[in-house]
UniProtKB/TrEMBL annotation:
Pathway: Cell wall biogenesis; peptidoglycan biosynthesis
Name the UniProt record assigns to this protein: UDP-N-acetylmuramoylalanyl-D-glutamate--2, 6-diaminopimelate ligase
GO biological process, one term: cell division
Residue ranges of every copy of the Mur ligase central domain listed in the record: 65-258
Pfam families associated with the record: Mur_ligase_C, Mur_ligase_M
Family the UniProt entry places it in: Belongs to the MurCDEF family. MurE subfamily.
Subcellular location: Cytoplasm
A Gene Ontology molecular function term of the record: ATP binding
One annotated Gene Ontology cellular component of this protein: cytoplasm
Organism: Sulfurovum lithotrophicum
Domain Mur ligase C-terminal residues, every copy: 282-403
Annotated NCBIfam families: murE (TIGR01085), PRK00139.1-4 (NF001126)
Length: 432
């Protein structure tokens, strides 16, 4: 693939081996355009790997993390651990671009256009960063938005089912994800999820909780956070984290293994800094401890299953919905996942977009047929209010789907709405 620059300084992509439809070609061109204008000198045509070499970006260790769930938390944890080990990492992903412990650019796509990524690598390298940690989406793999980037490490969190509105089938989604692990690049794979992808075994390492792995959890406790003992070869280490949930144990293991492969530091040295990482806003974020209210981004049936299963030792109340103009097949599955673990269920709107909210609710309720203690309302604030009012001392309230999003998208308009703000306001009103 080449980046061609037209006479106005804009860019488009050419690839003799791949025919892009007009819509995708326009999308990629428009994504690259603002960063073309920032280039000091524009060759007539250049490939992404040539541009990497031109800017000296090969000096950076690039880490790509992909998976249905966990990308944001794992990349943030790697970034945090490297900082605490006196390295100089940069972080690019859903939450924006970070370097020197501050946000350089605001939230963006999970994986931006190739020119934006390379530009972000250059500006963070100029700031002294020598690691570049990035989230890699299935869209980016399919659209070749990461082509030409030389990765030092590729990380797999899990691959279940998502974005079927784009990929069409689960099999195609998994095939695309697997493409990321087809080369000889060093890779770190979730051994407990390994059957959901195919990969090149050369330079492959693994982490696991139940399955034998390069980095293996020997024992763990999820009481008052996460405490675990792990083993790598003959090395043994322990760590504690304030984060909650079994899936976060997997996320932390992915980050610990990644940092070890990158730095070769003793495992215990890495484990010693784990406690400093409190997690990511909107990902299992504790909004209130009395009563216990947690907000999370889980927006697929697998995500809901993982979050609720991680809290199954408690009585669970849950508020969730499903986004409009997205994969409709997952909606009843989301309902069924909630019904499996939660005692009280409040089905409500997420981002209905162009769909009728009540119709989305009906799709979800199909998976809750015959389940008791189910309440449905398109008014998300009302759903949260009812859930809080009915919450008992031994219960946890999980509000899922939006995480740290601060809006609801309805008919093309984004209205301010933050689950965390709503919880705090309602609790303050009740106390007042």
């Amino acid at each position: 693939m080449k980046i061609d620059f037209d006479k106005e300084g804009y860019s488009y992509l050419t690839d003799n081996t791949m025919l892009l439809d007009e819509e995708t070609l326009f999308l990629l061109t428009s994504q690259n355009r603002p960063y073309c204008e920032k280039l000091e000198s524009k060759p007539a045509s250049i490939t992404p790997d040539e541009l990497m070499a031109f800017w000296g970006l090969d000096a950076m260790k690039v880490v790509g993390v992909t998976g249905t769930n966990g990308k944001t938390t794992v990349t943030a944890a790697i970034y945090s651990f490297l900082l605490d080990l006196d390295k100089k990492p940069a972080l690019q992903g859903t939450r924006g671009l970070f370097a020197e412990e501050k946000r350089i650019e605001e939230k963006s796509m999970t994986t931006p256009s190739i020119l934006e990524t390379l530009y972000n690598m250059k500006q963070t390298m100029d700031m002294g960063c020598n690691y570049f940690i990035m989230e890699v989406s299935s869209h980016a793999i399919d659209q070749k938005r990461i082509e030409g980037i030389t990765f030092a490490l590729k990380v797999h969190t899990n691959v279940t089912s998502d974005h079927l509105d784009y990929h069409g089938t689960v099999e195609e989604y998994r095939r695309v994800k697997s493409l990321f692990f087809a080369d000889d690049t060093m890779k770190l794979l979730n051994k407990d999820d390994i059957n959901n992808i195919t990969y090149n075994p050369k330079n492959a390492y693994s982490y696991g909780v139940d399955e034998p792995a390069t980095y293996k959890v020997q024992a763990f406790s999820l009481l008052h956070g996460i405490t675990a003992g792990i083993k790598y070869m003959q090395e043994e280490a322990t760590f504690h984290s304030p984060m909650m949930g079994l899936f976060n144990l997997f996320n932390l293991m992915a980050a610990i293994g990644s940092v070890h492969l990158l730095t070769k530091r003793p495992i215990q040295e890495i484990c010693d800094v784990v406690e400093n990482f409190a997690g990511v806003a909107g990902r299992m974020e504790v909004v209130s401890r009395d009563p216990l209210v947690i907000v999370d981004f889980a927006h697929t049936h697998d995500g809901i299953h993982a979050v609720l299963e991680s809290m199954k030792d408690r009585d669970i109340s849950v508020v969730f919905g499903a986004g409009g103009n997205r994969d409709k097949e997952k909606r009843p599955l989301m309902g069924a996942a909630a019904g499996r673990y939660a005692n009280k269920i409040y089905v409500t709107s997420d981002n209905p977009r162009d769909e009728v909210p009540e119709m989305i609710l009906e799709d979800i309720l199909v998976g809750l047929h015959g389940k008791e203690n189910v309440t449905a309302t398109p008014d998300r604030r009302l759903a949260i209010k009812m859930a809080l009012e009915a919450l008992e001392p031994n219960e946890v309230l999980l509000i899922l789907g939006k995480g740290d999003e601060d809006y609801q998208e309805i008919k093309g308009v984004k209205h301010h709405f933050d689950d965390r703000e709503v919880v705090r306001e309602l609790l303050a009103e009740r106390q007042g």
